[in-house]
Amino acid sequence: KVKGIVTSIQKFGAFLDIDGAQGLIPISEISWGQVDDIKEILTNGQEIEVVITRLDWENDRITFSLRQTLTNPWENVDEKYAIGSRYKGKVSRLMKFGAFVTLERGIDGLIHISRLGEGKHINHPGEVLEKGQDIEIQIEKIDKEQQRISLLTIDYAEAKKIEDQDDYQSYLGKMSSSMGTLGDLLKNRTVAKKIK
Fold this sequence. Notes:
The protein has 196 residues and is of the alpha+beta class. It is built from three helices and ten strands, in the order βββββαβββββαα. The chain has helices at 77-80, 154-179, 182-195, and strands at 2-10, 13-18, 21-26, 47-56, 61-65, 86-95, 98-104, 107-112, 134-143, 148-153. It has a five-stranded antiparallel β-sheet with strand order 3-2-1-4-5, with no helix packed on it. The radius of gyration is 27 Å and the shape is elongated.
């Protein structure tokens, strides 16, 4: 670990001066999350601590990582987020297969396209969501090892809950018609005990 001063911010990363030696922090090494604008995190003249990740003496290049000095948010993801719980997030990327939602810097979850559109078939998540949109979601699954979270929209989660309840009521209806009511079962049991 070394300390340096940010001297220049570019689209691809930030340059750092360490006692007269210049090096680069690539955009991928600035934060655990996706960085769209480095200026939201760093400013010229700012002193920061970084880790040296590569020394290329032949080309006089030093590569740094700011990310490696920060705690990986996935380390305690299961303590912060619970399956079935609801959270607020921001739509960060729209892909053909679904929408990524940022819960916090470095923690993104995916709403699969099949769980969008409130039951209607859609061809792209952009038909129902916009990048940068604030959205309330529910956690469906967490895979800490693969660093993946499956999300549901609240509308989808509510519809699924109603569907599950309807299935349960239907199941109870079938059971009671094949076995009789609970009262009938208890009555038969009482009669059987008296006969013994």
